[in-house]
Amino acid sequence: MRPAGERLTSERPPSEKVEHFRIGPLVGVGFPRPFAIEGFAKIERLIGVGVEYSFLPRVNVMNVEASFAAIAGDLRIFPFRGAFFVGARVGRQWLEARARLTTGPLGTFDESVAASTWFVNPRIGILHTFDSGITVGIDAGVQLPISPSFERSGVATDAGVASELDIDGTLAAVANGLGNNTTPTLDLLRLGFLF
Q: Strand 47-61 vs strand 21-31: parallel, antiparallel, or unpaired?
């Protein structure tokens, strides 16, 4: 028998709070693309889906102008309905660079490179959403390229002297290190708000 005045309630204790659906933006910093913006939704604290744009803003270092970007769909599974997840991104990335090179006897010439690839990025990590909606996370994985491409153009390439200047080797190494080969990935910080 209940004491007088006690109400019958179906409320769950705070530790058993049910979250059917949350949605919001996430931003992040990481490697190989330093900045990311993601629209993210979490369903029943079990499945997370998102669309992400990650990028390196156009930079100019030592007369080399470069840009790097990717767009990907994202799936995260939270097997324990907590912060831990296993997931994968599937998307496409692009790397472009242009440079004006000067060599004594050969003169000055413009060179450019364009590298792109489809990729799958399996990963594991932690993405915790507080009751307030503030969300923080970190994750690591590996990016697996699918059909990578690498194109060079410019005066040195057209004249057949790029290999003598080791331009091709350097540019191919940069493209491969940033995703045209199997590449480790790391999101150092994900921060956002889920409504």
A: unpaired
Q: How far apart are CA 69 and CA 36, in angstroms?
A: 9
Phi-psi region of 45 (alpha: psi -120 to 50; beta: other; left: phi over 0): left
Looking at the chain, how many residues does it have? 195
Q: Is 121 helix (H, G, I), strand (E, B) or coil?
A: strand
In the prediction, which pLDDT does 61 show?
A: 73
Q: What is the Cα Rg of the chain in Å?
A: 24
Q: Taking the alpha carbons of 152, 156, 158, 164 in that order, is the dihedral positive or negative?
A: negative
Distance between CA atoms of 58 and 67, rounded to whole angstroms?
Answer: 5
61: its two tokens: 């270092």
Listed by start position, the domains of the chain span 19-193
Q: Is residue 166 over pLDDT 70?
A: no
* CA separation for the pair 38, 102 (Å, rounded): 41
- Judged against a pLDDT cut of 80, whether residue 4 lies above it is answered with no
Please state which CATH number belongs to domain 19-193: 2.40.160
What's the rounded mean pLDDT across residues 83-87? 98
Question: pTM here?
Answer: 0.80
Q: How far apart are CA 159 and CA 117, in angstroms?
A: 27
Burial class (CB in 10 A: 0-12, 13-18, 19+), 13: exposed
